[in-house]
Amino acid sequence: MLSKAVDALKSDKKVRTIIVRSEVPGIFCAGADLKERVKMNPSEVGPFVSKIRAVINEIANLPVPTIAAIDGLALGGGLELALACDIRVAASSAKMGLVETKLAIIPGGGGTQRLPRAIGISLAKELIFSARVLDGQEAKAVGLISHVLEQNQEGDAAYRKALDLAREFLPQGPVAMRVAKLAINQGMEVDLVTGLAIEEACYAQVHSPGSERAGCPAGGIEVAKDSPRRGARAVGARPHRPVPAARGQEDKALEVDASIIDLRLSLFSNAGTETCRSPFRHGLRGTPF
């Protein structure tokens, strides 16, 4: 399941950037499996939501930069997953929203906390109260995403932009990248004076001689969110392969790198795992958390 994949990758020093994406055309992640939830009794719902929240928190706490590439629907828990990423990019045709109030519930995977931090309290309340769904242009206008792209024929415009961003990150000092993320994340939760003290402590971690070389070679991983309905069915990871610039053409700028791992959720019935440095898949039923 997704939690096992995150656990396997978060301590891997070769990981430099994580891209969360979907392989299903038109869908990033449509949230939890509501049919699965309807069958639960009240005593099961709490642990179920807590498990989802815990996995999303694990993604938010990953030490390396994370990018959500939203090329389709990102609703409910799907948007909460994207909000847990450091950066979000989307196609203009993508649809995003926390729609739980339509179901007489509230976001339970961190949405009530991360959305206000991303776009401001008042606007976050408006969107959650109304269960409004935004397209890519609207999401960019309110600051929910950093970049919006016109969708291409392959349906992966956001993913391609995420790859471009990841390649901008890769030449930078690996230790500095991790420590910068730590300083920003922790500093945002405290007052400015305390935040500056956090920055000073983090700076000391990269100021020592050779600290930048203590990291790892350039590389990255991709996390693919495959959600044909409301939640994906399996997890897989494999080395990244180049994405063609157009059908029948090779994009020479996209080089295969053994340290770039493709972690995917997909429809597989057989469960099994291998080390993260080689392909693995893990089958499960229902919501992938």
Helix proportion range: 25-40%
Task: Estimate the mean pLDDT confidence.
Answer: 77
Number of separate helices: 10
| Low-confidence runs of at least 5 consecutive residues | 214-239, 241-260, 265-289
CATH superfamily of the largest domain: 2-enoyl-CoA Hydratase, Chain A, domain 1
Largest sheet: 8 strands, mixed
Strand order of the largest sheet: 8-5-3-1-9-11-10-12
What is the CATH fold-level name of the largest domain? 2-enoyl-CoA Hydratase, Chain A, domain 1
Please identify the top-level CATH class of the largest domain: Alpha Beta
The whole-angstrom Rg is 19 Å
Task: Write a short abstract of this structure.
Residues 233-247 have a biased composition (Low complexity). The chain is an alpha/beta fold.
Please explain how this structure is put together.
Residues 222-249 are annotated as: Disordered. InterPro entries: ClpP/crotonase-like_dom_sf, Enoyl-CoA_hyd/isom_CS, Enoyl-CoA_hydra/iso, Enoyl-CoA_hydra_C. It comes from Acinonyx jubatus. The protein contains ten helices and twelve strands. It is α/β, with parallel strands linked by helices. It folds into two domains: 2-171 and 218-283, 2-enoyl-CoA Hydratase, Chain A, domain 1 (Alpha-Beta Complex), CATH 3.90.226.10; 174-214. Helix 3 packs parallel to helix 4, helix 5 (111-119) packs across helix 6 (121-130) and helix 9 packs antiparallel against helix 10. It is globular. Residues 214-239, 241-260 and 265-289 have low confidence and may be disordered.
